[in-house]
Here is the input.
Amino acid sequence: MNYTEQEKEAIIQQFLPKIKHYALRYHYCVQNFLEVQDLISAGIKGLLEALNRYNPSLNVPLFSFLDYRIKGAILDEIRSCDVFSKEFRKKIEDVKKAYTELKNKGDEPTDEDIASYLNIKSEELQNVYQSIRASDIISLDENIEGENGDKLNLLNVISEQTNVFDEITFKELKDRLARAIDQLPQQEKLLISLYYFEELNMKEIAQILGVSVSRVSQLHGKILLKLKNLLDKN
Here is the structure.
């Protein structure tokens, strides 16, 4: 569809609160590398590109299409920022493998178990947890593959309650994720619910849980490791 500049400006103003919401929501994981305004600008760019691409014949509501593309554009901006060195990426991969190997041996591994297994300090492990959300190991790049070969990254599976593009195709993935979340302890379920479904930011969640923002970020990273492990098993 073709929009006049005046119409585009009106739509930008309408969606600006949503763009700012997503920018603030994801900024914490790259706050040392990107400004909030960088993510807001990416969201506006994604909105304008979506307006040019929108096709009413797809039977997808305009609001849903624009919202989906705004979020995607902001995440693309984060992906383009290579925030980790190869050495740090290896640390994240080591933690993921350690968790899986210890979990396969029996009970849920504690942070002390993982740190001891890797011969690293607890503070270093917490730093890894805090950075996992921004890494490409789980949240942004790594895909879950369904039985029919369809792929969707974990972030989208968690955050999209209803996939407006192909609900049937990804139903199996969402069912798997629901089963995995159901196996989490209550506090971790609450964090997932507050972040992905209530769409609260880290500061708001920290106030509800009575912990620091950095602790929420650490818990979030560890939960993603757990979910990935559970999804792989299922």
